[in-house]
Amino acid sequence: MSHEIIPIGDNFWNVRGRFRLGGVVDIGTHCSLIRRQNGKFLFLDAYTLTDSQAEHVDALTGGRNRIEAVLNLHPFHTVHVTAMHQRYPKAKLYGTQRHVEKLPELPWQTLRTEDARLHKKFASDLEFSVPKGVDFVSANENVHFSSVLALHTATQTIHVDDTLIYARLPLPIRLLGAPDLLSFHPTLGTALSTQAGAAQAFSSWAKALAKDWKHARNLCAAHTSVLAAADNRGDSIAQRIKKALSNVSGTLHAHKRKYG
Known about the structure:
- The strands form four sheets. Strands 1-2-5-6-7-8-9 form a seven-stranded mixed β-sheet.
- Helix 7 packs antiparallel against helix 9.
- It is built from nine helices and 16 strands.
- It is globular and about 55 Å long.
- The protein has a single domain, classed as Metallo-beta-lactamase, Chain A (4-Layer Sandwich).
- By secondary structure, it is α/β, with parallel strands linked by helices.
């Protein structure tokens, strides 16, 4: 993936980056820059910016001291956190409980990004949603399904890490009339909590997400692509979330049969 900064409406920019799985395959990663109503800026997630990206960010913000906070939203996305803090040491650093445990040497703020109190703190610019029915931090460290989803209300842009995946499909499939796909991460079956009612809790959460964020126009996903309103030739994002839920009905039914 290219090292680019994509403007998504006014006051929201998605920074695309590289992340090589096993040091070989580039599956990409991202963070997003937001200008708040108070005129200051914050990052959603962390990335080691290239020199050109850093210069671009400085031009947009007016300098490093304009970055008010960095909100790390995925408990397993820890690789770039230290580099981001070193570049913006005056920005308040927020993370999940796992971030704090894995990087205890960093000056973390008290509130965790999965905490409703943090969501209230930034409610003038953002809404947040934490998936239900799944383990937020899986005991299996290869399962990265859950994360804190964020909606920038001014641009109606969803910033999401692994929970939802958006991808442009290969050309032969596009020619058959299926240009792209929004889906839940394929590790859902493993991520579901091993207790009764987990599948129903997840289904209810996904339906509520589609309803509560029904006006969402853009979606920025970590390891895949950006779905911008200007490029969307298909269903609304809310309809795509409903379809993604329908597509995992077999996984949810199997979990219900086993755990109730």
